[in-house]
Amino acid sequence: xxxxxxxxxxxxxxxxxxxxxxxxxxxxxxxxxxxxxxxxxxxxxxxxxxxxxxxxxxxxxxxxxxxxxxxxxxxxxxxxxxxxxxxxxxxxxxxxxxxxxxxxxxxxxxxxxxxxxxxxxxxxxxxxxxxxxxxxxxxxxxxxxxxxxxxxxxxxxxxxxxxxxxxxxxxxxxxxxxxxxxxxxxxxxxxxxxxxxxxxxx
Length: 202
Fold this sequence. Notes:
Elements: E1 3-8, H1 15-24, E2 29-31, H2 32-42, H3 44-54, E3 59-60, E4 63-64, H4 66-73, H5 77-100, E5 107-111, E6 126-131, H6 134-145, H7 149-158, H8 162-168, E7 171-174, H9 181-193, H10 196-200
Parallel strand pairs: 1-5, 1-6, 2-5, 6-7
Antiparallel strand pairs: 3-4
Helix pairs in contact: 2-5, 3-5
């Protein structure tokens, strides 16, 4: 059975860079943002749930009405919980199927900014947090998304606090622009490789 690595971290932390390094090293990674967007269009259960919640206008033909969904989703914590209750169980099912199709791999990964908040802790064997100082994260996100500092800070406030996430992680990779990433990822793989037999015998 593959070791399942849960890769998380706040906006601008650099999760995607670490994911790409893992993939270069031969570890397939389930990118939850991409797969969730796919499922919200392709999965009939999600389509029915969102249509029931938001009305027929939540889809325009075969496309998701993203402005309508975003307006509702960010309207309140209750709204977000309602959408998440429709989407997250189907993403979990999809991730399990994805893992089953890669059962011969020693390791697989899932990248998700809200891995812990979304209840995916039980879906992975180890949680790896990609950590960067707050100001570094803000600058990266502003530059990457061509967004305002205010909007990025609002998005950060909606995510779990970095220090809380750090306490819940099994491993921390520091991506502050100064600490080399490749040695840290290699050390992570080396550490996980020592646990293969134990995990397979569970």
